């Protein structure tokens, strides 16, 4: 497409060189000027789009890396909280087991007596 525009501009230049005083010459001169501006604007727009795409890719890359880091931090926090809960439950279980052990020891003599009475009564 750019080659067509360049070729058209060359054709206009050749035509303008031959007929420099006619109204057609002035019109063609303006057309040539406008074509040059359009081509320049198109190139500028292409450059802006390319820069925007590059910046968008960088933003996406940064967001993905930060998101990954955030997920890792969140995972560590969840694991730490789960470990705290497990430790709390383990401590509670040890306390409950110690209380049951005390009850067993306190009632052992009575239970032994009941069993002996039951066996000797037969």
How would you sum up this structure, described in words?
The chain has 122 residues and is mainly α. It has one domain. 95% of the residues lie in helices and 0% in strands. The chain is rod-shaped.
Q: Give the % helix.
A: over 70%
Number of domains as seen in the coordinates: 1
Largest sheet: none
Q: How much of the sequence is in beta strands?
A: under 5%
| Class based on secondary structure composition and strand pairing | mainly alpha
Low-confidence stretches: none
Q: Tell me the distance between the termini.
A: 114 Å
- Tally the helices: what do you get? 2
| Alpha-carbon Rg, integer | 45 Å
Global shape: rod-shaped
* Strand segment tally: 0
Order of helices and strands: HH
Q: Whole-number average pLDDT?
A: 82
Give a nutshell description of this structure:
By secondary structure, this protein is an all-alpha fold. Helix content is 95%, strand content 0%.
Can you lay out the helices and strands and say which pair or pack?
Blueprint: H1 2-18, H2 23-121
